Amino acid sequence: MSNAKEIAKIIKKSEKIVLFHHVNPDGDSLSSSYGLMKAIQAKFPNKEVKWVANVDYIKKNFSFLINDFSDVIEEVDNSYTAIIGDNAIKERIYDYEKYEKAGIKVCFDHHRNKIDFEFDSYWQDYTLGASSVQAYDIASKLKVPFNDHIALSMIFGILTDTFNFTYSLNDTRPVKAAMELMKHIKTESMDNMYKEYRKRTKDDVAFQAYALSNFKIDSGIAYLKITDATQKRLKLSTHQVKRVNLIGNIEGIHVWIFFIEDKKNNTINTSMRSLGFPVNEVSKVFGGGGHLRASGIKLDRNWKEIDKVILEIKKQLKVYLKAKKQNEK
User: Fold this and answer.
1) Are 90 and 116 in contact (CB under 8 A)?
2) Contacts of 225 (CB under 8 A, 6+ apart)
3) Engineering a disulfide at 220: which of 61, 79, 132, 254 sits with its beta carbon 3.0 to 4.6 angstroms away?
4) Tell me, what's the pLDDT at 168?
């Protein structure tokens, strides 16, 4: 198993580097790719450091953070060292065919999934709240000269993936990384990031009202089915309704779930959260994965499939609660 120091060594030796993000990148994926790319460029201005990116998706969802795509490249060959963070699943790498062509392949991830593609260096730490912390550790080992934009691009993933440290538990590493990065960030830059990322439209508020009015409860499980028709009626995309925590942290509820129909990809995307129950174990049964308390599954586009998921949760939740009760005695 690799670490930040080993990956930093590979970066130092490589003259051509290309960063990748996962499909439908979130803040952590962007910090682990774009943020790390900018950090490496600042440290090694004479190296060729590029990015493979879903430009249209990023422009639509993260224009407040990234508006320069001059480093995006279309072709990758074996002269490149390819780096992917926040993911170790082949089908989840955006443009995996390009990643596969690279001569050296590096991966770092904070999920519990087993890596399913060939690599030269792999660093997994599922105790971390965000892969952005790994990206920051790599940049620190390289002694990157941080500035406002680099630090902001790296802290974004730490804040979003830990939900402002809500998911960090008692792990101080994300907090320490954010503290160091904030030394380089202007107050107005941080204010603007929060303002833009938290901004809600009237359609967003309408969806929140819909979610709170229509979720169901079954044996300590809260869940909501979001059909394609509902998304169209509320004028929101599949990505925009992925806010499962709208029905989270309700007294007496151990697991909360969004079942989101994705007509384009013929799937039902399942997002699960909990306060302790290991939802990743449920995900594994259906070929999914993720974190202990935050996990997901891609089901076939058949609403009968969600009954199987709920039944599996009930089965595992019964065992979990029994063991918890015995431990509390």
Assistant:
1) yes
2) 259, 261, 303, 306
3) 254
4) 62
Q: What tens digit of pLDDT does each residue of 83-130 get? A: 999 999 998 999 999 999 999 999 999 998 889 999 999 999 988 989
Residues in the chain: 329
**Do 243 and 271 form a contact (C-beta atoms < 8 A)?**
no
Model confidence band, residue 9 (pLDDT cutoffs 50, 70, 90): very high
- Nearest residue to 189 via CA among 157, 163, 153, 160: 153
Give the integer Cα–Cα distance in Å for 176 and 157: 14
125: amino acid identity, one letter: D
Decide if pLDDT at 177 tops 90: yes
Q: Could you give the CA distance from residue 77 to residue 210 in angstroms, rounded to a whole number? A: 48
Q: Answer whether 282's CB lies under 8 Å from 272's CB.
A: yes
CA within 13 Å, CB half, 44: 17
Q: List the structure tokens of 163.
A: 């939900």
Does 275 score more than 90 pLDDT?
no
List, in sequence order, every beta strand (DSSP E) within the chain.
16-20, 48-52, 81-85, 104-109, 121-124, 216-218, 221-226, 255-262, 267-274, 289-290, 294-300
Q: What is the pLDDT of residue 95?
A: 97
Q: Which domains does the chain have, with CATH numbers?
A: 4-198 (3.90.1640.10), 202-328 (3.10.310.30)
To the nearest 10°, report the CA torsion of 190, 182, 126, 273: -30
Cα-Cα end-to-end distance for the chain: 39
Output DSSP code: residue 277.
Answer: S
Six-digit token string for 312: 């599996």
Dist. CA 275–CA 287, nearest whole Å: 22
Q: What is the mean pLDDT of residues 60-76?
A: 95
HSE, side-chain direction, 13 A CA sphere, residue 38: 21
pLDDT at 169: 65
How far lies 223's CA from each of 73, 84, 273, 292, in Å?
Answer: 41, 32, 10, 18
